[in-house]
Write a structure and sequence with these properties.
By secondary structure, this protein is an alpha+beta fold. The protein contains five helices and three strands. A hairpin with a 7-residue loop joins strand 1 and strand 2. About 20% of the residues are buried.
């Protein structure tokens, strides 16, 4: 629902967003999230750090969506965003569906690249939108 929040450690998209942090800062964040987590949400630091590193190396994730759903997601980082405000884009799907996740990732990357290559027209700056 609207306003639902989840831990960055509970989904691949969270791992992808954490992968944009510098390694030392990322490790500190992962340690803090684990230290502050209730016992039933604690995780192995080395495994979580590796998942985030894997997301960084790949530039995409295919994982559970999080937020208490059974949905899965294939997501990429949108290139060219500031490290302070990374954006991820994903396609959410039912895990029982037969989905070629490599094709989803390729589709996302190709589509984002096409959009980034096109000049912006007919877009009103947010300050003038109202």
């Amino acid at each position: 629902g609207n306003g639902t929040q989840d831990y960055l450690t509970d989904s691949g998209v969270g791992h992808l967003l954490m992968s944009t942090l510098a390694p030392q800062r990322r490790e500190g964040l992962i340690r803090r999230l684990n230290a502050e987590a209730p016992d039933h949400r604690k995780f192995n630091f080395a495994e979580m750090n590796q998942r985030v590193t894997d997301a960084e190396m790949a530039g995409h994730v295919v994982s559970t969506m999080g937020f208490g759903t059974i949905a899965d997601v294939a997501a990429i980082l949108i290139p060219g965003q500031s490290r302070q405000h990374p954006l991820a884009l994903g396609i959410v799907y039912e895990p029982s569906e037969r989905v070629e996740t490599a094709n989803l990732i390729a589709l996302l990357k190709d589509t984002v690249q096409i959009c980034l290559d096109r000049p912006v027209s007919n877009v009103v700056p947010m300050s003038h939108a109202a």
